[in-house]
User: What shape does this take?
Amino acid sequence: MDMVFHPGFGRSRSAYTALCSGVLFPVHELLKGHSSVAVRRRLEAQEWWPRDRLEAWRVERLRDFLMAVGARVPHYRALFARLDFDPAGVTSLTDLQRLPLTDKGVVRAAGDRLKAEGARGLSSYSTGGSTGDPLIFSIGKARRSHDVGAKWRATRWWGVDIGDPELLVWGSPIELKAQDRVRQWRDWVLRTKLLSAFEMSAANLDRFVATIRARRPAMLFAYPAALALVASHARARGIALDDLGVRVAFVTSEPLYPAQRAAITEAFGCPVANGYGARDSGFLAHECPHGGMHVQAEDIIVEIVDGAGRVLGPGEAGEIVVTHTATRDFPFLRYRTGDIGVLSDEACPCGRSLPLLREIQGRAIEFLLATDGRVVSGHAMEYTVRQVAGVERYQVVQHRRDLVELRLVVRPPFGAAGAERLVRDCTARLGPDTTIRISLVPEIPNDRNGKYRHVVSHLPAAERTWAQASPQP
Assistant: This one.
């Protein structure tokens, strides 16, 4: 079969992959009215621009976005008039700070006044609501094209492309409901197979492992917890998965813990590429082969803010706020994601000029609050639990400030000594006034949207705030 050079690790791709990537998928996108091919090509050129040229583009892009929003979106037209804000006068990304932050409550209250006048082809979407705060919003073709193009660009960083065999362990209701004949035909042509993350029973895990071995995918795409569970299951069954030629495992939608990365890498014999985004705020950042988590900065502006909404500098932890300039039909402008992160001012060894997210610490709702007001991240609890042998799966549930439950799925050699150590170590992290309750359970199911939450907080929203202190490692 003819081979064509492809960027990334110097890998080659088959003629069929070249046909899918260069002809079939572009035609598919053209028929849907998407410009994702042009977006991907633009992004692949811009990622190598010098930083000053990239920053000039971002300012111009932001100014055009704000002018369009101010002219066509009733909510922002009124807001700009009230603030005496002239988008045409924007000369710096910091000019964004003259505008208020937006959150789900603002979006709900604005309703249809957030839709641009004359916008066509909008689709209604919703967040999963696993945190108890779902949101219904609209997405236009420009935003969909950007999400596809940006993800496609990042995929190619790793030497794989559309048309290479792909296996997904996923649980999004949108994807699962879309398995009609047209979608099935498209997935067959593009060599994509979906396994439902809703169905992670032992019997289904046996089937998942068998399917992976049979299909020999070039790339995996999954929730990190789901893929780590598949890896753990295969290891327990003594089934090798590292001889299949998997080049990369893409994970997203949940915090990626070090133990998960290690388990996936060991099981499949491939690197793990972390991605960050959300259905509402968009495809925001992706890891490159050199380990840099690059913001998709050509069209997206990320700010880090404290509890009072003040913008923080590189190296400081705060809430991730997003302005997505491809959303002018339904703007996401200074939108609070509820996620905690840290920006970096360092350059990535890969040479791309895209700015870096140094850390993505998880959702604010997935942090624990100690009795003395300290904020403790889920990563800290992961380190604690992983020190105890025999814990296969865990979930930390904070019922009250002084009551935390550890739900554990265990196997030998876990016993009383392990439980005592967990109580001791968790008390040390959360404070001596905290009661640690150990609950041994046969399984811990995923959420309704297929995701797995390591940390669940039942604290009232007014109390559950990371802003009282920096998250503790």
About this structure: The radius of gyration is 23 Å.
